Amino acid sequence: MTPEQARQFRDDVLNIVSQIPSGHVTTYGTIAAWAGWPSHSRMVGRTLRYTPGAEQLPCHRVVNKEGRLAPGWSRQRPLLESEGVQFRPNGYVEIKKHLWEPEWE
DNA sequence: TGCTTGACAGAAG
DNA sequence: CCTTCTGCCAAGC
């Protein structure tokens, strides 16, 4: 992955995250795949964590495929709940109910 | 250069 | 449902 591709990847990730509608969620894998690097789901998380500016994006609406939230980031849950996202008794989000996927306008 | 670390995903127990 | 393992890959040491 060239530095330029990395830059493109980061831009795509941030762009997609910024488009997630309130009350919906998407997954790391979906974002990675849409950005053109299906096997880089972990890079999506790493990007959101270490990229300054991601904090102003709705990155709390990004969860893993099973509906689990980011470990060590308890703030994420209240943020989602305040948007109407439903949680299962075990702390997982009803991902099938709120899942959103990127689109071209 | 080589081993360890994750805001992951999927399968197994 | 929850924990652990393996595959994955860029970053850190």
How would you characterize this protein structure?
- α2 crosses α3 (41-50).
- The mean pLDDT is 91.
- The chain is built from five helices and two strands, in the order αβααβαα.
- It has helices spanning 3-17, 28-34, 41-50, 76-81, 95-98; strands spanning 26-27, 62-63.
- Helix content is 40%, strand content 4%.
- A two-stranded parallel ribbon has the order 1-2.
- It is mainly alpha-helical and 105 residues long.
- The protein binds a DNA duplex (13 and 13 nucleotides) through residues 1, 6, 27-29, 32, 39-50, 59, 62-66, 68-73, 76, 90, 92.
Quick overview of this protein structure:
The chain is mainly α.
Oligomer: single chain
**Stretches where pLDDT falls below 50 for ≥5 residues?**
none
Shape: globular
Specify the biggest β-sheet: 2 strands, parallel
Nearest-integer average pLDDT: 91
Distance between the termini: 28 Å
Whole-number radius of gyration? Answer: 13 Å
Share of residues in strands:
under 5%
Number of helices: 5
- The SSE string, one letter per element, is HEHHEHH
Q: By helix and strand content, what is the structural category? A: mainly alpha
| Strand order in the largest sheet | 1-2
Number of strands: 2
Fraction of helical residues:
40-55%
